[in-house]
């Protein structure tokens, strides 16, 4: 069988384009309506996607005046979606900086059981002072400290998820013995950031633990991914950059003593599908025309750490921007934006147009065959194991992708035509169920 | 219309009797099977219950060898149940000691939106060192400190739930203006236990915030309930005690400046239904015969803070037990058990038999008419606004209650015969939607 493409649907409000909510078709309340997400999840399942994904940050963005703001908390929403779907994986973002391992491990274990082994965790360290100030901190912790805490968080969570061996339950009703307490392993963890004594109060789950996903592309982020991640979401603007990122991450994974095929790389793309290329370009232009440039300038100034009213719409970026090393958080996004502007000699207005669609992710616009061509090229030329699909407008952009691009990918033998028997999320991605670190003779997990 | 009874179904594993899992009919894996809970929720909805409820503690009880252990995390499980039901309220236990207000407020707000206004929060402060040691503490915080933190937690959570006024959304697509940022109110809270700066990232919900439920019956617990709670679960062994508790809590609520009818008192009862009284008593005896007394003694020694192997099965409790004031956590449970043993002159063996069924809650055993009589007596004689129904065996005990006792209660005009139009949980309990504390002219919340 041909190597198979992995597809993840990144669901966000009325779409990834910041102006999508202004289109006549869009429901400005969709982002807090369960039915909106149920519809999207079922469409993604119709397209035999591996998984769907929700981003998250524990703060209200300063955007209420500009576009739909607020959200349903991802683990809660995905649990509701678990009961409305049957096959698709469910990946929730959750922060290692603003959760405790015991609580979060319980929630993911519960979702994994309820969904029949379809839970995934997009591990984030959460940049920004706004989030920090919602959790008793005066400022955000330093980048390196956030990653150190994340690594310890993972180690504790993995111990908790393994704290029940798979065969604890005896269920001897006659003797009145339910389980074998010798097969329960309290972590007894004492570390820098956490002390966690007792075993989890959820039995080991269908997958053992959720699929571990990561999306930071900074140096710290890549080191973390090589050690823990089974899937990586990334923003890459050119085939060459994507190939370099792919090769680098696979070799880091091997260097960490892991099978490089045990980590799947999924660049984010914004597919814009038309019956002709011109039609696709026209749809892009309609969205660009709905951008409020004043908001775009303010957002860009924030991303580039510039004072308000520094940027001019029809001029290029200033030439004296600081290097990535001077930036705290969203480091790789910073570099991507600066390099995009310089490589393509974009004005601020043009840059805002390019970023409005996918916040730095690449747009593949054209006919279904052209979009499929671009996907196949990246997939077969060492740039991707699959893609994180980020439609500019939802639900219409996901409908278009599933109705028109998916059939082309299937005809080329790159994507399953049906799900077949029920599988866990990890099985969909072709990954083995992890052994339990406490089971005698089993190999160590990490 | 006759004053209406409120019924809550307290769902626990294969039943509230500790030996229920040993019956031939019981599934020893039921407690981690979604279908088990979906079946129970639908039965409760068939019985037009107001709500269902899940207890919780963030630790694994030391009981793996004895009975089904571990659980699905309540907020996760209730979210799944929200999509499988239509009318019934969904009350999750969550701890103020081991959560952060921002995270928990988001989750309850999300569940309230997803369920169409059916979320409730059973507020607990979580006694015990085992839980504390899963969250970086060496020992449990003192009782009074846990309640001080709980009060501040509630104040912050109420600010977060009110941080969006109801009419934030403008949705002016032509102007590119989504919401009115002036109607967002960041809490900017700086307190003893919490600092929370920003507004919640979930809009105000159908109920404004979840129904606030509480179950601690200690002095601190009653003070807290009088200030915040809209429903109280309690364990009372005699009509006289229940009347005294009811009157005391209502007068404390009035003294706190609230309408006493704005707090509903629901004693827990274990209904054991037979076609004759003898059949009900026989069902009780079968369960008692399945109790492993060795485990019961150990549990009782823990509850009474006695060293292991202190108690003798066929002797009464020691006469020199400490007073409640010397006990940390589960204070009212301690007193209830000691008083029950002394009042009825029970041996340890008899006491364990009485506690095995409902851990201190009262059993109403008999024919459907006899159970309905007891309910009606308590309800009409100032002891209860409704009941927390705790079947000894699940699902069979809930089936029996709904099939045989509910029709009697309906025939007496005490319980709705159908749900009628969709209502929020708070509406089911006959309580008004709270005003937003930030809306000009609205009365203060608490």
From TrEMBL, chains A, B:
User: At the top level of its lineage, which domain of life is listed?
Assistant: Bacteria
Hey, which family's this protein in? Belongs to the NtaA/SnaA/DszA monooxygenase family.
Q: Does the keyword Amino-acid biosynthesis apply?
A: no
Q: Which InterPro entries match?
A: Diverse_substr_monoxygenases, Luciferase-like_dom, Luciferase-like_sf, NTA_MOA
Q: Which UniProt keywords apply?
A: Flavoprotein, FMN, Monooxygenase, Oxidoreductase
Can you tell me which residues bind FMN?
A: 56, 93, 143, 147, 217-218
Molecular function in Gene Ontology:
monooxygenase activity; oxidoreductase activity, acting on paired donors, with incorporation or reduction of molecular oxygen
- Recorded protein name is LLM class flavin-dependent oxidoreductase
Which is one Pfam family of this protein?
Answer: Bac_luciferase
Q: What are the TM regions of this chain, as residue ranges?
A: none
Matching NCBIfam families, A to Z? FMN_nitrolo
Which positions fall inside the Luciferase-like domain?
A: 27-383
């Amino acid at each position: 069988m041909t190597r198979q493409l992995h597809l993840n649907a990144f669901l966000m409000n009325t779409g990834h384009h910041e102006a999508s909510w202004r289109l006549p078709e869009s429901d400005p309340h969709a982002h807090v309506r369960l039915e909106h997400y149920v519809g999207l999840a079922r469409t993604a399942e119709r397209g035999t996607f591996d998984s769907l994904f929700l981003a998250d940050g524990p703060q209200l963005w300063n955007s209420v005046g500009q576009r739909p703001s607020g959200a349903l908390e991802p683990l809660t929403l995905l649990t509701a979606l678990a009961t409305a779907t049957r096959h698709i994986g469910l990946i929730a973002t959750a922060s290692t900086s603003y959760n405790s391992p015991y609580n979060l491990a319980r929630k993911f274990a519960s979702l994994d059981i309820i969904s029949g082994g379809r839970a995934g965790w997009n591990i984030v360290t959460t940049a920004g002072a706004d989030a920090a100030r919602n959790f008793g901190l005066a400022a955000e912790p330093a980048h390196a400290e956030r990653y150190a805490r994340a690594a310890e968080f993972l180690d504790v969570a993995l111990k908790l998820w393994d704290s029940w061996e798979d065969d604890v339950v005896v269920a001897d009703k006659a003797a009145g013995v339910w389980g074998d307490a010798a097969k329960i392993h309290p972590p007894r963890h004492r570390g820098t950031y956490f002390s966690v004594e007792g075993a989890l109060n959820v039995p080991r789950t269908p997958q053992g633990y959720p699929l571990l996903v990561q999306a930071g592309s900074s140096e710290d982020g890549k080191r973390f991914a090589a050690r823990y991640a089974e899937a990586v979401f990334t923003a890459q603007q050119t085939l060459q950059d994507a190939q370099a990122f792919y090769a680098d991450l696979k070799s880091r994974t091997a260097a960490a003593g892991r099978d490089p095929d045990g980590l799947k790389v999924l660049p984010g793309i914004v597919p814009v599908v038309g019956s002709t290329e011109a039609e696709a370009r026209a749809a892009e232009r309609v969205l660009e025309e709905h951008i409020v440039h004043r908001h775009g300038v303010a957002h860009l100034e924030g991303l580039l750490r510039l004072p308000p009213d520094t940027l001019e719409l029809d001029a290029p970026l200033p030439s004296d921007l600081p290097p990535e090393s001077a930036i705290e958080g969203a480091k790789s996004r910073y570099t991507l934006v600066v390099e995009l502007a310089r490589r393509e000699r974009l004005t601020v207005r043009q840059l805002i147009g390019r970023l409005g669609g996918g916040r730095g992710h690449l747009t593949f616009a054209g006919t279904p065959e052209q979009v499929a061509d671009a996907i196949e090229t990246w997939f077969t030329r060492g740039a991707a194991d699959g893609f994180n699909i980020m439609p500019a407008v939802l639900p219409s952009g996901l409908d278009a992708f599933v109705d028109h691009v998916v059939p082309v990918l299937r005809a080329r033998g790159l994507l399953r035509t049906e799900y077949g028997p029920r599988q866990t999320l990890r099985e969909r991605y072709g990954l083995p169920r992890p052994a339990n670190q406490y089971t005698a003779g089993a190999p160590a997990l990490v």
